[in-house]
Write a structure and sequence with these properties.
The protein is of the alpha+beta class. 35% of the residues lie in helices and 26% in strands. It is built from 15 helices and 20 strands. The protein has helices at residues 11-24, 40-44, 63-73, 89-97, 107-114, 116-125, 141-151, 174-192, 249-266, 296-303, 307-315, 394-407, 417-424, 427-431, 438-446, and strands spanning 5-7, 28-33, 47-52, 77-79, 101-102, 155-159, 169-171, 197-201, 207-216, 221-233, 236-242, 269-279, 282-289, 332-339, 351-352, 355-357, 364-368, 375-376, 383-391, 409-411. The chain has an eight-stranded antiparallel β-sheet with strand order 13-12-9-10-11-14-19-17, sandwiched between helices. A five-stranded parallel β-sheet has the order 3-2-1-4-5. The structure holds adenosine-5'-diphosphate (ADP). Residues 131, 156, 162-165, 200-203, 208, 232, 235, 275, 277, 286-287, 436 line the site of adenosine-5'-diphosphate.
């Protein structure tokens, strides 16, 4: 096992990782920017190192500083969390060159899946169904028009290096296509330094369903079922649940087995998520994330498996200690992403938390790094915590969620808690009848 783990992240996920390390008896090193000196994970870690000023590119993305922090503290493994350097193949390689373990998949797998064009080709070769679209990159306007005619409008232009919904543009008809291409291209170049584009059939009313996988890099892999992340705003997930209200056990094990088999063939190591759009009973691969995801707790709640613990064990050379038959799904779980944002217009709302009271009780989990008196810095994403609720079935889970949202107090900042209070009382949500466009339409109707 590792003698010391450096956590190359901040916020709720840094604390989540720290908790797993403590339960494994592994000493931890927290790193932080000058803006995060008072963060909870810094207070609870065995050691901490300041790695730079607030701007992420000078601190949490600063590879030389992170390496120096490993050297000073003697950390022999790094957990990257999500975001920041978690899907940076070069970072994984540099650590390896310094004999420090990167807790995640191989650099090669990160690189393949990080390029969405290559990811799609790889998925298809591994037997995973994909969205119809361009076979590789779109190189010219003529090329794009020909492909669009073939797959049929509307089409979606996407960035090969895309993430967070950026560099994605819909063309409803031929007249829109050139504008969609040029805006997507400039957005992608600015955001990712890579203007490669590809095209997909635009699906009108799909759900976003993703399969959680776990592999040991030796050809053993299992799937841990799905998460339904269809409630989105601007392609960003807002609420996630497992199991999906739209799948039955047979559909689940069918797609789960396809994905687990692909991961066995790939010899995938660690946790990963294969994301699909699901429409009219068909699954269409969109991308694979080669890291722990924000919404991983809903899977933990219904399987009882600690995904971070598994990541660490496997990174240390351990083999998968479960088979597909060992995995069962108990009850229902829902996660709400609580952001420090205005619940109506979603503008960021940093500031000091003057009063904090999280909910508790049976089946309730709050993953958050905030506390009373904590000052939310304006430099990073607005996620301040996740409320995850488990029930024996979906109805019980929803009732418990409503109760928890009533108890939750985060003053004096604005948060998205009122949005979730509105959602738990909605009939479509109660019925599980929503697709990826439902939330935006709902918000439009209210304004
Ligand atoms: P990113 O990496 O930027 O998040 P994804 O490929 O994961 O991009 O897509 C993010 C979201 O965009 C999806 O959850 C879905 O809401 C929407 N989306 C992506 N591809 C399509 C498509 N072909 N048709 C309709 N919506 C799509």
């Amino acid at each position: 096992m590792f003698s010391k783990i450096l956590i190359a992240n901040r916020g709720e996920i840094a604390l989540r990782i720290l908790r797993a390390c403590k339960e494994l008896g592994i000493p931890t090193v927290a790193v932080h920017s000058t803006a995060d000196a008072d963060a909870m994970h810094v207070r609870l870690a065995d050691e901490s190192v300041c790695i730079g000023p607030p701007a992420a590119r000078e601190s949490y993305l600063n590879i030389p500083q992170l390496l120096a922090a490993c050297e000073i503290t003697g950390a022999d493994a790094v957990h990257p969390g999500y975001g920041f350097l978690s899907e940076n193949a070069r970072f994984a390689e540099i650590l390896e060159a310094h004999n420090i373990e990167f807790i995640g998949p191989t650099a090669e797998h990160i690189r393949i899946m990080g390029d969405k064009i290559q990811a799609k080709q790889t998925a298809r070769d591994l037997g995973i169904p994909v969205v119809p679209g361009s076979d590789g990159a779109v190189t010219s306007s003529d090329d794009a028009h020909a492909i669009a005619r073939e797959i049929g409008y509307p089409v979606l232009v996407k960035a090969a290096s895309g993430g967070g919904g950026r560099g994605m543009k819909v063309a409803k008809s031929e007249a829109d296509l050139d504008t969609a291409l040029s805006t997507a291209r400039s957005e992608a170049a600015a955001a990712f330094g890579d203007d490669a584009l590809y095209m997909e059939k635009y699906l009108g009313k799909p759900r976003h369903i993703e399969i959680q996988v776990l592999g040991d890099g030796k050809g053993n892999a299992v799937h841990l079922g799905e998460r339904d992340c269809s409630l989105q705003r601007r392609h960003q997930k807002v609420l996630e649940e497992a199991p999906s209200p739209s799948l039955n056990a047979e559909q689940r094990s069918q797609i789960g087995e396809i994905v687990a088999n692909a991961m066995r063939k790939l010899k995938y190591r660690g946790v990963g998520t294969v994301e699909f759009l699901y429409e009219n009973g068909e699954f269409y691969f969109i991308e694979m994330n080669t890291r722990l995801q924000v919404e991983h707790p809903v899977t933990e709640m219904i399987t009882g498996i600690d995904l971070v613990n598994e990541q660490i064990r496997i990174a240390a050379g351990g083999s998968l200690d479960m088979t597909q038959e060992d995995i069962s799904f108990e009850g229902h779980a829902i996660e709400c992403r609580i952001n420090a944002e205005d619940p109506v217009n979603f503008t960021p709302s940093p500031g000091t938390i003057t009063y904090y009271h999280p909910p508790g009780g049976l089946g309730v989990r709050v993953d958050s790094g905030v506390y009373q008196g904590y000052k939310i810095p304006p430099y990073y994403d607005s996620l301040i915590g996740k409320l995850i609720v488990h029930g024996r079935n979906r109805v019980e889970c929803m009732m418990r969620l409503r109760r928890c949202l009533d108890e939750f107090v985060v003053d004096e900042i604005k948060s998205t808690i009122p949005l979730f209070r509105d959602l738990v009382d909605n009939q479509d949500i109660a019925n599980g009848q929503y697709d990826i466009h439902w939330l935006e339409k709902h918000l439009e109707n209210k304004s």
